[in-house]
Amino acid sequence: MNARFYDFLRPFVRAYYRLVWGVRPSGEENVSAPGGYILCSNHVHARDPFVLATCVRRRLRFMAKAELFKNRIVGGFISAIGAFPIRRGESDLGAVRESIKILNEGHVLGIFPQGTRSRDNQHTRMEPGVAMIALRAGAQVVPAYIDGPYRLFRRTRVIFGAPVAFDDLGRRFDRPTIDAATERIEEAIWALQPRKDT
Predict the structure, then answer these.
(1) How far is it, in rounded angstroms, from Cα 106 to Cα 8?
(2) Which residues of 27-58 are buried (b: 16+ CB within 10 A; e: fewer)?
(3) Among 1, 11, 68, 193, which is least packed by CB within 10 angstroms?
(4) Are strands 156-160 and 140-146 parallel, antiparallel or unpaired?
(5) 189, 2, 134, 179 alpha-carbon torsion, rounded to 10°
(6) Dihedral sign (CA 68, 74, 76, 81)
(7) How far is the C-alpha of 45 from the C-alpha of 38, rounded, in Å?
(8) What's the confidence (pLDDT) of residue 12?
(9) Where are the alpha helices (DSSP H) in the chain?
(10) pLDDT digits over 23-79, tens only?
(11) Which helix (H) or strand (E) holds 38?
């Protein structure tokens, strides 16, 4: 990550998404604490990482699909703003190690646990990788919900929920424990979805 470039770019990107896409965050107190944690959100559009980054005052590091890094320009840009590659559909131990390193260094790691975009915000299955990383790093997960789809000059709500802890699950990494943690993350994200009448 190029921290200077990230900090230089953020206010311009923030202004753009506020003015053009009407992004309005709530629950920002849940993402202001120091120390490493995982920010987990539903995934509506390719612009989601930029939206979350403009709503959180701390720098975010994101996983991004490895295919994006094959393009030198795109790969160079997203690397500069803190993204790192993950090979989807397989066990990418390198990405897992990098994630744990980021968390242990006290940074914020952004992950979209659905693994792919759902433009109509369907409650698709969450992948278990984020729970495994959280358990191994001993990190909390902060859930977020992006109330898409994005519409020009309409309000887009971004809601941050209270951290999800896994202390009671112990330091086990077996399948039942990972499944239990995944279910908590999934429930915490979808619980933030506004009701249609609000």
Answers:
(1) 21
(2) beebbeeeebbbbbbbbbbebbbbbbbbbbee
(3) 11
(4) antiparallel
(5) 50
(6) negative
(7) 19
(8) 96
(9) 3-20, 48-55, 72-80, 93-104, 129-137, 175-190
(10) 999 999 999 888 999 999 999 998 999 999 999 999 999 988 889 899 999 999 999
(11) strand 37-41
What is the spatial order of strands in the sheet that 156-160 belongs to? 23-26, 156-160, 140-146, 37-41, 108-111, 60-65, 84-86
- Give yes or no for a contact between 41 and 112, defined as CB atoms under 8 angstroms apart: yes
Cα 106 off chain centre by: 16
* Predicted pLDDT of residue 197: 58
Task: Please give the average pLDDT of every successive group of 10 residues along the chain, which has 198 residues.
Answer: 93 96 95 93 93 94 89 92 84 88 96 78 82 93 93 94 90 89 94 78
CB 65 within 8 A of CB 88: yes
Cα–Cα distance between 105 and 100 in angstroms, integer? Answer: 9
| Secondary structure (DSSP) of 149-193 | ---TTS-EEEEE-PPB--GGGTT--SHHHHHHHHHHHHHHHHTTS
